[in-house]
């Protein structure tokens, strides 16, 4: 009799609406969570006087909120805000294990690079020779007959392939000392946070879409016990408080579903394995394409070699390597030329030509069209090596960059769960009240 009365006492509409509410809130939590994760690319907000000084006294977790340590209130997507960190981890966990700078360089086929340099540099030889001679020995050069100048151009043109081959070989021999892939990747990611967002979105497209959809499922299932607790205890604060729990757990379960367990775990007839990890070969292809097309490219290697922290060393090494080749280009006339202009002046002309040639020969590294053609080799190397990474390294390649910030997503879920609880309370009132 008591049970029947209790059943009759239930407001079934209010009771049934609780799981529906928590399901919808769970869906909204994961949907807006993805927006928080990726948007905006750049920080949007405003500065508050004194906040920067106050931020140093805040708990470390709060200091991690984008903008706080700069004294600003606003938001930047968690992923773009951690672009540099993502680059560092991607390099440590994956790129550094995929190959050495020398391996990457060999994949780009130095002989083809040399051929491309010769093709681009050859038409510029008269301009380069004229420029150097006008700067170093204008009177002598202006007094030379045109046919002698043409002979100089032809001699340099004949020697150009061997000169360029020497340069590309020298880069290959010393590239491990000249190029730091980690610094290159960090710098590129930091300057292009939208690229980091694209990596996450492209390789996790299926899992991210699923995460939003299962938000409703998890929210709905968690809402069933919440409905019974609320109906049994009849306290106004229960739905907001339990909403915090549901919101936090919904986001947590979504992340766990994608990334956990890292290693396949057999339970009876079922195999538990992170959804993202199950697609490692497929994801490896997408990741390799992005890295090869946008990060470890011939163009970026060239920029880093010449303009990076070791650029001066690169230029000095290449110029030194070119001097013997330029001597060979002078041929039988070398001794006569040294006598005519003096040994010191001849060396100055040779050094000036070497410096000029270094800039000209490295320019094709920065040719986007040629770099794109060469990226296919890097893509194949990256795809095969990424597919072979241990599961732990593979998952850390992406998740580690945001793992410390996941609490913000969970907190966001908790706040939305709290709001959902108060909204249900405002519409239906206290259960049994």
TrEMBL record:
Determine the domain of life of the protein's source: Bacteria
Keywords, alphabetical: Membrane, Transmembrane, Transmembrane helix
| Chain ranges passing through the membrane | 12-38, 210-229, 235-259, 407-430
State the name under which the record lists this protein: DUF445 family protein
According to its UniProt entry, this protein's organism is Aeromicrobium terrae
């Amino acid at each position: 009799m008591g049970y029947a009365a209790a059943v009759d006492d239930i407001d079934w509409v209010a009771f049934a609406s609780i799981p529906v509410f928590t399901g919808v809130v769970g869906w909204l939590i994961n949907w807006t969570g993805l927006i928080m994760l990726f948007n905006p690319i750049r920080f949007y907000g405003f500065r508050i006087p004194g906040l920067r000084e106050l931020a140093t006294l805040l708990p470390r977790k709060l200091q991690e909120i984008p903008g706080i340590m700069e004294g600003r209130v606003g938001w930047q997507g968690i992923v773009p805000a951690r672009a540099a960190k993502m680059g560092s981890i991607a390099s440590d966990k994956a790129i550094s294990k995929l190959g050495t700078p020398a391996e990457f360089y060999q994949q780009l086929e130095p002989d083809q690079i040399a051929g491309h340099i010769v093709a681009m540099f050859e038409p510029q030889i008269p301009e380069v020779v004229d420029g150097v001679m006008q700067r170093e020995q204008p009177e002598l050069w202006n007094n030379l007959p045109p046919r002698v100048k043409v002979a100089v151009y032809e001699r340099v043109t004949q020697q150009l392939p061997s000169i360029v081959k020497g340069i590309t070989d020298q880069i290959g021999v010393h590239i491990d000392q000249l190029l730091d892939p980690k610094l290159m990747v960090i710098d590129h990611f930091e300057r292009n946070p939208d690229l980091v967002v694209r990596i996450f979105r492209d390789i996790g497209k299926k899992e991210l879409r699923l995460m939003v959809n299962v938000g409703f499922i998890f929210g709905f299932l968690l809402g069933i016990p919440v409905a019974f607790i609320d109906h049994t205890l009849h306290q106004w604060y229960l739905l907001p408080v339990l909403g915090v729990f549901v919101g936090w757990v919904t986001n947590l379960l979504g992340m766990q579903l994608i990334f956990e367990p890292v290693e396949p775990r057999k339970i009876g007839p079922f195999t538990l394995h992170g959804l993202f990890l199950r697609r490692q070969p497929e994801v490896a292809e997408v990741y390799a394409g992005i890295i090869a097309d946008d990060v470890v490219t011939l163009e970026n290697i060239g920029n880093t070699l010449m303009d990076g922290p070791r650029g001066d060393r690169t230029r000095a090494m290449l110029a030194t390597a070119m001097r013997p080749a330029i001597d060979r280009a002078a041929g039988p006339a070398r001794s006569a030329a040294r006598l005519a202009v003096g040994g010191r002046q001849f060396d100055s002309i040779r050094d000036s030509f070497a410096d000029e040639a270094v800039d000209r020969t490295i320019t094709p590294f920065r040719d986007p069209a040629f770099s794109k053609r060469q990226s296919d080799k890097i893509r194949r190397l990256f795809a095969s090596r990424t597919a072979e990474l241990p599961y732990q390294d593979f998952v850390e390649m992406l998740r580690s960059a945001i793992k410390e910030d996941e609490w913000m997503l969970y907190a966001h879920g908790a706040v939305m769960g709290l709001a959902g609880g108060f909204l249900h309370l405002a519409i239906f009132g206290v259960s049994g009240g």
